[in-house]
Design a protein that fits this description.
Blueprint: H1 3-23, H2 29-43, H3 53-56, H4 64-76, H5 80-88, H6 91-94, H7 103-114, H8 119-127, H9 138-154, E1 161-162, H10 163-178, E2 183-188, H11 190-193, E3 198-199, E4 201-208, H12 211-220, E5 224-230, E6 234-239, E7 244-250, H13 255-263, H14 266-278, E8 281-284, E9 287-290, E10 296-298, H15 302-308, H16 324-329, E11 342-346, H17 358-367, E12 372-378, H18 389-406, E13 411-419, H19 430-434, E14 438-442, H20 451-463, E15 467-470, H21 488-498, E16 501-505, H22 515-520, E17 528-531, H23 543-552, H24 566-574
Parallel strand pairs: 4-7, 11-12, 12-13, 13-14, 14-15, 15-16, 16-17
Antiparallel strand pairs: 1-3, 2-4, 5-6, 6-7, 8-9, 9-10
The structure holds 2'-deoxyguanosine-5'-triphosphate (DGT), calcium ion (2 copies) and zinc ion.
């Protein structure tokens, strides 16, 4: 996608977020208009900044007003409406929306009636028992909110930026810096490159012969709100969303040592430095050198540094100090899935929140070279977005028709994403469910049940003969909603016993199951499936994220049904 489109999509994301506060409603007319515009520019293949307002309006999802907003962004460099909304709702206040259960109406009420302006002042209001005095609030909700805040703090995600925000921004910045004169290389390192779920800040390493041009650019980017520091080769800025960006310019011959150092993790670096010392060498951000003679042993590439230390290249996703160096020494590092042969969680515009028609999704799956795709729209119990029986049967006929037209290159499974009710109950009836080629079942509500109830709920769904896969097991939204409480060991055992696979959902807001849960499943016979959970064609790419977190979770590709050979995948499908 072009940079301009990303900039416009980010603007509409922020407008929609702030507009929910303005209207006190996540589904207001204007919120939906911004949301539609965001999806539209996101899916548009050309460059939106090159279109006139009249041309923009021809894109589905963009109306007269949002077309004007896009022009304003590119012609004036900023959008008056957005500037005004940011004044009314500063970042600290918007953060309240990340607290599960608060929502725009709640945030506005807290501000009006208890002068709550952010998470800190919310804590204070709870500590001084101010909330229980509010009408319709009470002691019980106050205690519950206190527990939620405590949990958010414990998970350490507070104040950190979810990967769904950091990753696309990092890619935009890489492209931006690579286009500057003198720049031969730019890469986001740190926790972003390791593909952590949340990041504290972005660390970008740039190789350039003209560092001052990079410094100028970093400090004058439109997203920058505050400059923390600027030197000859180092700059730190903070964006309007409160994300810090550290940029470091190095000479091209030091790039390997610099990216290795700034990718971290700290634990990985410490272990590598120890290893170097044991050989009489020093490892720094400038290179691997002999301590006595200062002779440079390696610095240009990460590979050469690992090789000098008698190690194979260790992928960034594994550099967390979980035993990767020992495993590398023994040649036992997990591999990343080289190719994914099928996608088993894909929506079409039949789902209320889906965007692309069946034919387009199938064409895009073919273009990606997939051998199988499961069309899995939402089942009826999902209010608003779910689909009733009749349209599903019509869709099945269309799927069969498409399959006849296309021949056997791509197998199209007619599937469904069932909703797991609070007691493990599923949509439709057993007979209707059995007629699908592929059923996955996921939790979409009742996030507050206790651990025993949640665990029972999942295990009950696994026992249903139609269910082949559990979708996004924890149902978390990174940075916004914690996962449900689960006895993971019991769930893994049930998955093994029933032969139910677990999804590795590549949607950046989810990344579910988490890589820490995957590591917990090591040594068991649990089978996984990589999916994109795409709601439009452009999101089929998200399966690459699933590959990355599977690696981060030390999952052996042999236990990923669509991760080794097409033949293995077909055998799994044939078993039903
Ligand atoms: P974050 O930003 O909290 O999500 O995590 P990181 O890993 O991106 O950490 P950050 O931004 O503080 O530093 C980026 C990398 O720089 C880090 O992964 C390793 C390296 N680094 C920073 N400080 C130190 C240090 O004191 N010792 C060593 N060995 N490496 C460091
Ligand atoms: Ca960082
Ligand atoms: Ca940093
Ligand atoms: Zn889905």
């Amino acid at each position: 996608m072009s940079d301009a489109n990303k900039e416009a999509a980010e603007m509409f994301r922020e407008l929609a977020e702030l507009q929910t506060l303005e209207d006190g409603d996540v589904q207001s007319f204007r919120v939906r208009a911004y949301d539609n515009a965001r999806r539209a520019v996101d899916a548009y293949t050309g460059d939106v900044s090159k279109l006139k307002a009249s041309e923009l309006q021809k894109i589905e999802g963009i109306g007269a007003s949002t077309a004007k907003t896009i022009r304003e962004l590119f012609d004036a460099g900023s959008v008056a409406k957005l500037v005004a909304l940011r004044q009314s709702y500063p970042k600290a206040f918007v953060d309240l929306l990340n607290v599960p259960g608060i929502g725009p109406k709640g945030a506005l009420r807290l501000r009006k009636e208890a002068s709550v302006e952010g998470i800190d002042s919310l804590r204070e209001a709870i500590a001084t028992q101010k909330l229980r005095k509010l009408k319709g609030f009470g002691e019980k909700s106050e205690v519950k909110l206190a527990a939620i805040l405590e949990r958010m703090e414990k998970e350490g995600h507070e104040g950190r930026t979810p990967i769904s925000v950091a990753w696309p921004l990092a890619q935009r910045l890489e492209t931006r810096f690579r286009a500057l004169p003198g720049v031969s290389f730019a890469m986001a390192c740190g926790s972003t490159r390791r593909f952590a779920e949340t990041v504290g800040d972005l660390d970008i390493v740039v190789a350039s012969t003209q560092p001052s041009l990079v410094m100028d650019d970093v400090t004058t980017m439109p997203m920058v709100e505050r400059i923390i520091g600027r030197g000859d080769t180092k700059a730190s800025v903070v964006t309007r969303r409160g994300l810090q960006i550290d940029v470091r310019v190095v000479a091209p011959e030091h790039i390997g040592a610099a990216t290795l150092y700034f990718t971290g993790s700290k634990a990985h670096n410490v272990a590598l430095r120890q290893r170097a010392l044991g050989r009489g060498w020093r490892l720094s951000e400038y290179g691997l050198t002999e301590i006595e003679s200062k002779r440079v042993i390696a610095s240009e590439s990460e590979e050469s540094i690992y090789a000098a230390l008698d190690l194979p290249f260790i992928p960034p996703e594994l550099r967390e100090g979980y035993g990767e160096i020992e495993a590398a020494e023994k040649g036992e590092l997990p591999a990343i899935c080289a190719t994914v042969h099928g996608d088993f969680h894909v929506h079409t515009d039949l789902s209320g929140d889906g965007r692309s028609p069946l034919e387009e999704i199938v064409a895009a799956a073919r273009a990606r070279g997939l051998c199988a795709i499961a069309i899995t729209d939402h089942a009826e119990n999902l209010g608003g977005n779910g689909v009733k029986r009749e349209p599903l049967l019509e869709q099945r006929a269309r799927v069969r028709g498409l399959q006849d037209e296309l021949g056997d290159g791509l197998r199209i499974l007619h599937g469904i994403e069932l909703n797991i009710g609070p007691a493990g109950e599923l949509d439709y009836d057993a007979e209707f469910r059995a007629a699908f080629d592929f059923c996955l079942a996921s939790v979409h509500d009742h996030f507050d049940l206790d651990e025993a109830a949640q665990t029972r709920r999942i295990m009950t769904a696994m026992l249903d003969p139609s269910v082949a896969m559990i979708g996004h097991l924890s149902a978390r939204m990174i940075g916004a909603r914690p996962g449900i409480d689960l006895d993971l060991d019991a769930v893994f055992e049930a998955a093994e016993k029933t032969g139910t696979t677990l999804e590795i959902n590549g949607g950046l807001p989810r990344l579910d199951i988490s890589s820490s849960a995957m590591r917990r499943a090591r040594g068991r016979g649990v089978q996984f499936v990589l999916t994109s959970d795409a709601h439009q064609t452009s999101e089929l790419d998200r399966i690459d994220n699933a590959r990355r977190i599977a690696l981060r979770g030390w999952v052996d590709p042999a236990s990923i049904v669509n991760g080794t050979t097409a033949e293995n995948m077909k055998q799994w499908l044939a078993r039903g």
